[in-house]
## 1
Amino acid sequence: MKILLILSLWLTVSARAQTPAEIIKKSDEARLPSGDISVTVHVRDFKKRVLEKDTTYKVISKDAVMSLVDTIAPQRQKGRKLLMIQNDLWFFTPDIKRPARVSFQQKLTGEVANGDISRTNFAGDYNATIVKTDKIKGRTAWVLDLKAARTGVTYAAIKYWVEQKTFMPIQAEFFAVSGKFLKRAIYSKPINALGAQRISSVLIQDAIQPANESIIHYKDHKREVLHESFFNKDNLAQ
């Protein structure tokens, strides 16, 4: 009994010692690890819970500040790409030949915005505060308010539940500049990938019509060796 009490006290103190920035950074690692990596991202879009679209992307990321999202299925969409360099985002399709600048807020597919796939760096994009501790799905979590640290990020504000024990994201609610509730994300339980526990899927639901949803699956995580020259908008046609 005494050992359990000591362990409980240690976990409580440890949880309180975490700063909001540390919590967000660790939860970012659970969603998509930092460094040079690639991952296959499979997205299924549902309207009124009927499957409407099925798309697969190869995402290649360098230190969470550069990424290339390459559409690999379906066949008719092959060659479509999103390139992120720092705070800039370009869209390329073989039909238009020249990359066009786009926003992180624009929809990529279904309920998924460009920034949901190309940029997953909450720690770099938001200032966070801890609002309270909450029980959600039987798990003790911090509830954090995230406010955009600059203009142009995917969402103006996020309400974010992060499990205290593991730093795994559990749920997020996304808001526009106006304060409008846009959509909700529900994160899956983790799998082992690249030597740590990572989120394997995310359910994104429209705030008004939750039967309109997208399910994002992550698989085939790999470490890469990438030079900055790889992320060049003049090479998107290759």
Note: The chain has four helices and 17 strands.
## 2
Amino acid sequence: KKNLKVLFLAVFVAVASCSFTTKEFNDTDKDKVLIDLITYVLQKGHYSPADINDEFSAEVYKDFITGLDPLKRYFLASDIEEFSKYKTEIDDQIKSKDLTFFNLVYNRLQKRMEDVKKIYPEVLNTPFDYTEDESINVDYDDMDYVSTNKELKERWRKQLKFSTISSYYDNVEQNKNKLKDEEGYTSKSEKELEEKARKTSKTSLDEYFDFTTDLERKDYFAIFLTTIVEEFDPH
């Protein structure tokens, strides 16, 4: 968004030149300095910030958690219960430069992602039975968080089966076309085609988690700051 770019440009100019304001930002914790500076720019610059209150806090809470885990495939219900204690306290934490909520969510996400790194290879190591009649809920907004790691694994199994079936279908169609068009082509068995589809899914997830491994705490903190800023309504 253009307004966000202008805001962050103002923040960086302020940091670089120290001429934006006479206010001093002497905290040695860079994260706290950024929170202090952003809220200051919003309040003193050409912006009309929304009231930083419990309602504001609840919106930041919802958008941050949803942004980190939109498909509800990392956090457990117990995590959300623990996070929700801070639902109306984020505004107070922003004002006091308290990073308790962010640190809790960030550290828990790292743990859950490590758990998932063990789950998906195990799931994809087992053939999917596409003759089995089962369903999956993809209305993630209304979906509940799972309560146990066993339930989390089952959620991943269904989601991976759902996402892998398209690769399996493509493999089957490609096999049919090659059998028809390429003389001497040896048809692949359904077992081989299904296995190839699972390998494709695993490769995709391996690449995704390689990417997330390169992300640092500061990258997630930037998401948190952006979530805060987006709750303001520039005039």
Note: Residues 12-22 have pLDDT under 50 and may be disordered.
## 3
Amino acid sequence: MSHEMRVLTGDKMPRLLREIADPPERLYLKGELPDESTNKYLCVVGPRKYSPYGKAVCEKLISGLRGYSVVVISGLALGIDAIAHQAALDADLTTIAIPGSGLHPRVLYPATNRGLAERILSRRGVLLSEFEPTFKPERWSFEKRNRIMAGLSHAVLVIEAHEKSGTMITARLATEYNRDVLAVPGSVFSPTSAGVHMLIRLGA
């Protein structure tokens, strides 16, 4: 990837992210962050193993945001994350990808979405990480990444989720950070509906 990487620290970091209890010390950035004062940052999360319903809902909701000042944030992961990023590109929306790895092309995770990362940058999107550029992802780094996704957002939209999952961790963090949590109801027969239905019972 030819886009220059920059480092943000202190008051150069996004205001929303500086508000949380455990903000990062620095952020590595490719691309230009859209103005927080004139855009709504929407984090879209869901499982890697999604249902056809989840995919359709994700694409439909994001396509409906075309023309609005909405920035779509997700984690570049397989599944709903990648669908959300691509749907944002298709709707001519800016999208921010926050992987659980560093941003160097050699380690950017998952490798299968490196082409998607290129498309995001080519369409005025952003790659963002608090990890050193050559950091290879670890199990713990994804949960740590989730707090960046939640903290950077005005609201978190949960498409589908198992009751115990990274998606639910992101939703919990959003609640702790006083962000809006939005949840899409699903089929009572689907295990990926359990998490979202629990969020709705709790007031999402």
Note: The chain has a mean pLDDT of 94.
## 4
Amino acid sequence: MSELIDKTLFSVSTDETKQHLTGIFFQAGDNIATSVSTDGHRLSMSEFGYEGDFSLEEGIIIPRKGAMEIKRLADSQAETLQMAYLVEKKLFSVRTQTVTLTVRIHDSKFPPFEQVIPKYKENRMVIPCAPFQQSLKRIDLLSDGSESGVIFSISKDHLNLKGTDIMKGKAHEEMEVDHEGDEILWAMGR
């Protein structure tokens, strides 16, 4: 639960006029828990396998503050985390051996996020996580404060990352990846 929240909390909207975006959409079924959040510009999704009989097929929206408290509880006592959803009261409850936390969920509908997630049928790439993160950090140092972002160029088994800053110059990183599909040129802004 902690990992699901951690990987999606950063893209929760802070715009209180869009209540359906100010929390994490949480769904569970077939022993796969899914968390999704968006602020209208970014969308993050995380999936994690779990044991037990808990099911929440339609999903709920857990408010940002409630999600942070659930994460803190899961971090401190992760060995025995039990969950329950009280449908008629719109309450989500998380319980450990010593603490029970109850959160009132948002009574709204989350946007259909599945429509914007690519299906990955034709293009697939596997990237070694640590070297990729290090490359992004090095390029980010150069483009600090710039709105230019990072340009990805993907070809057969190679990923090129480029960043440019008018005052500091250019950065270029290249790494080997496992890529199947078309060559892609993609710009990622901040």
Note: Helices lie at 2-6, 64-76, 129-142.
